[in-house]
Amino acid sequence: MYLRVNIKKLLPAFTLKVDFSLPVGESMVLFGPSGSGKTTLLRILAGLEQIDQGYVYFGRDCFVNTHEKIFLPPRKRNLALVFQEGILFPHLSLEKNINLQAKDKEQTKDLLQILGLWSLRKRKPAEVSGGERQRAALAQALARKPRLLLLDEPFSALDQKTKETVINFLKTWQEENKTTMVVITHQWDEAQELSSYWLEIWRGETKFCTRPFPGHKFFVPPAQLRANV
Amino acid sequence: MITPLWLSFKLAIIVTAILVVLASPLAYVLSFRQFRGKPWLESLIMLPLVLPPTVLGFGLLLFLGPHGPLGKLFWRFFGYTPAFHFSGLVLACLIHGLPFAVQPLKAAMSKLDRKILELAEVSGLSPLHTFIQIVLPNVWPGIMAAAIITFAHTLGEFGVVLMVGGGIPGKTLVASIAIYSYVEALEYTKAAWLSLILLVLSYVVLCTAMFLERRQNTCIFGST
Q1: Are A85 and B115 within 8 A, CB to CB?
Q2: What's the predicted TM-score (pTM) here?
Q3: How far is CA B165 from CA B1, B6, B151, B169, B212, in A?
Q4: What's the domain count of chain B?
Q5: Residue A178 contacts B where some CB pair is shorter than 8 Å
Q6: CA angle, corner A100, sides to A27 and A70, nearest 5?
Q7: Is B94:B15 a contact under the CB 8 Å cutoff?
Q8: Average pLDDT in the B38-64 region?
Q9: ipTM given for this complex
Q10: Strands A27-31 and A2-10
Q11: Domain of B156: which CATH number?
Q12: Residues spanned by the domain of B82
């Protein structure tokens, strides 16, 4: 079972062409310079952007296939997306934000405590810092227990110590829940910590990367993976 | 002098309540959904803004009268036609007031951060839940502003109400038409008092709308 992506989308500056397969339950890091199409790719996976040509499959589920004119709305994809800005519903407290679509409401308390938000749980998003908002947005996404978790620079507003705690928790959580995760980051240390699979995007073109240190998996070329689907 | 004022208030309250309920989902659809025929629908809703009230009133008079389609329907079910009846005033004010309710709601919704709606979408919320749980709580000052402007507009409605209602004392003679009647009868004192009451009320209502609009800006822009 794979997350299979083969898409083309015309952007104002270039054409985004992405072709990869990722085993379900694994995590992948997307990196590349600003404006290279990383966020657009994440939004395509989420269903927030349309594609011009191609397909996205998650396991047996078709998210989008232009040839067969299939488009599954984002709300039916059972995924979660954490925006870079840590977007939350502004009229709800952090706790209510996390509880809104939580699968297990009991887990909200644990998430608030682990991510250091317990004392802030009654505050609204406008009343906390950017880093606290990012953590709350992550907690909101995790509470839904999605099968696909998409994170757009989720640690950019966190200090080093908090970042380490959050990354460690996220890794454990991902392994326990076998959630497929795609993360955008500019930080090498974050990328090394988070994932076995890396995908570099440069002006819309993908380049497959191997991890630069021993003991780690290599990115499997999509053609080989597709043969196994 | 009291009866026309009471009729005006009764009309304004009923029309405001109905219009807010109708205009909120309509403004949501017009703000965030793309569909074929949207410019046609928007133009139709906004038409009363540019149409002379007498033209709209005349059209409605024919539509609601004994030979009009809605008039016939009313006659069959209720035994009367809405023309020259209070129900006719309500229907006419609903149509004439719709753009006044939709515009402030659309303005409030356009200030809403689109990413909040995208978050709702990827969080698995249905469009109905998004509207009720996310959009309405974030635009409530806009809803209040729409209600207040609609109320004030209905209170001062003249042309359409005169054409459809005819200004029958105790039935369709609202305050704005009463002022006109007093002036025609050279009863300037009565006309002045009624005008003064409407002037003060309209000013208070508009001030409230302005305060609510400021609050809407604080709510939305203060949160990001």
Answers
A1: yes
A2: 0.80
A3: 18, 16, 18, 10, 33
A4: 1
A5: no
A6: 55
A7: yes
A8: 92
A9: 0.87
A10: unpaired
A11: 1.10.3720.10
A12: 2-222
